[in-house]
């Protein structure tokens, strides 16, 4: 009976010892998962903000015609200051590109 207790005590002590984990254990996996999740939500937030900005700009263009005219005038003057030989079509295309992106 005493021998059985000694064996049981040694056996339970052996089972209680912690086992060694791999170097790339769950901590690094969790960090990678958090980084990927954070990146995904940052991209989703950026998309939502761009959509909101586009909507606000569209409303401002419709409701503030004088402000839009001043803005376009400022942009065309800025292009002239660059000293580029641009045709009216090229200037219009550049302004359209700028205001739609």
TrEMBL record:
This protein's UniProt keywords: Mitochondrion
Pfam families: IATP
Compartment(s) of residence: Mitochondrion
GO molecular function, one term: ATPase inhibitor activity
InterPro entries noted in UniProt: ATPase_inhibitor_mt
GO cellular component, one term: mitochondrion
Similarity comment: family membership: Belongs to the ATPase inhibitor family.
Protein's name in the database: Uncharacterized protein
Organism the protein comes from: Pythium oligandrum
């Amino acid at each position: 009976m005493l021998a059985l207790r000694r064996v049981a005590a040694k056996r339970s002590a052996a089972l209680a010892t912690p086992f060694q984990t791999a170097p790339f254990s769950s901590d690094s996996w969790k960090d990678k998962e958090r980084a990927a999740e954070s990146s995904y939500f940052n991209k989703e937030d950026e998309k939502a903000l761009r959509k909101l900005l586009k909507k606000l700009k569209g409303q401002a263009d419709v409701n503030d015609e004088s402000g839009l005219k001043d803005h376009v005038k400022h942009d065309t003057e800025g292009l002239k200051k660059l000293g580029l030989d641009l045709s009216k079509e090229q200037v219009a295309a550049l302004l359209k590109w700028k205001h739609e992106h």
